[in-house]
Amino acid sequence: MLHVSMIGCGAIGVGVMELLKSDPEVAFDVVIVPEANMANARTVVSSLAPKARVETRLGDDRPDLLIECAGHHAIEEHIIPALLRGIPCMVVSIGALSEPGLVEKLEAAAREGKTQVQLLSGAIGAIDALSAARVGGLDSVVYTGRKPPNAWKDTPADGPFDLANLTVATVIFEGTAREAARLYPKNANVAATLSLAGLGLDHTQVRLYADPGVTENVHHVEAKGEFGGFELTMRGKPLAANPKTSALTVFSVVRALGNRAHALSI
Ligand SMILES: NC(=O)C1=CN([C@@H]2O[C@H](COP(=O)(O)OP(=O)(O)OC[C@H]3O[C@@H](n4cnc5c(N)ncnc54)[C@H](O)[C@@H]3O)[C@@H](O)[C@H]2O)C=CC1
Ligand SMILES: O=C([O-])CC(=O)C(=O)O
């Protein structure tokens, strides 16, 4: 039985608990949310993981695994202290690592705690192929993210672009993955994940579109290198609870937890 503490109880966290509620190999003991969200979280957690406590921090608990499904701030706030205590962690808010020095800090904390932090693939595929291709040397990785206009609400694109009235696919950002992840913390985690697996945050080119012609979150990657090349297009269905987030992100967390909890890992 894998004893898990989870940070976040939003679209991803709730989706994960729903899918794992009948898995006898995974037990949620603690769900961590900010003070202001505790009442809401208690209502959800009482039906999906009735044995779990809702807290604002991990405290003295020592789970087998701490998983982050919360947002960029949760890395400094919860993941680094847990790693220093030797608690294995998983992270979905990979874009947080666009902050200069944070990747190194995360690695140092895991090393000091003699444990490991796993960066999950989330809404994108082929991270295994890309990071293997890096071993032989990569020449270029280009990522294009395309989401319906409502997915860009409350982001830096909301204002400069009249999102509600767009009639054609519109480039709202073009630049490095580091800048994309910094400016769009809820929409460009994929850009950061591809960078960390591939050419790095400063050498991965990113273009983001608000596109009234799509209903899905479309991720396109083109990679070239010593291995040859690949092109990948993912058409992720957005979650009803949060149109910025694709359903595959939830499934990737469930897969990762299953791989730790079950006898067979794939
Ligand atoms: N790697 C990937 O492909 C993807 C990563 N993400 C990341 O996952 C995050 C969560 O996504 P959703 O569940 O859709 O968001 P959401 O907004 O529905 O839920 C966020 C939850 O985390 C909690 N939270 C926020 N800050 C916190 C903190 N500092 N400490 C503890 N709890 C905190 C909130 O109270 C809420 O329960 C996003 O912000 C994004 O960074 C999202 C989609 C794809
Ligand atoms: O869920 C998605 O489609 C991707 C996403 O939000 C991100 O990259 O942050």
UniProtKB/TrEMBL annotation:
One of its GO terms (molecular function) is aspartate dehydrogenase [NAD(P)+] activity. Its EC number is 1.4.1.21. The keyword Nuclease does not apply. Residues 168-254 form the Aspartate dehydrogenase domain. NCBIfam families: PRK13303.1-2 (NF009827), PRK13303.1-3 (NF009828). Belongs to the L-aspartate dehydrogenase family. This is L-aspartate dehydrogenase. Transmembrane segments: none annotated. Keywords: NAD, NADP, Oxidoreductase, Pyridine nucleotide biosynthesis. Residues 8-117 form the Aspartate/homoserine dehydrogenase NAD-binding domain. Specifically catalyzes the NAD or NADP-dependent dehydrogenation of L-aspartate to iminoaspartate. NAD(+) binds at residues 123, 189. It is an enzyme of class 1 (oxidoreductase). It comes from the Bacteria. The active site is at residue 219. The iminoaspartate product is unstable in aqueous solution and can decompose to oxaloacetate and ammonia. It catalyses: L-aspartate + NADP(+) + H2O = oxaloacetate + NH4(+) + NADPH + H(+); L-aspartate + NAD(+) + H2O = oxaloacetate + NH4(+) + NADH + H(+). The keyword NAD applies. Pathway: Cofactor biosynthesis; NAD(+) biosynthesis; iminoaspartate from L-aspartate (dehydrogenase route): step 1/1.
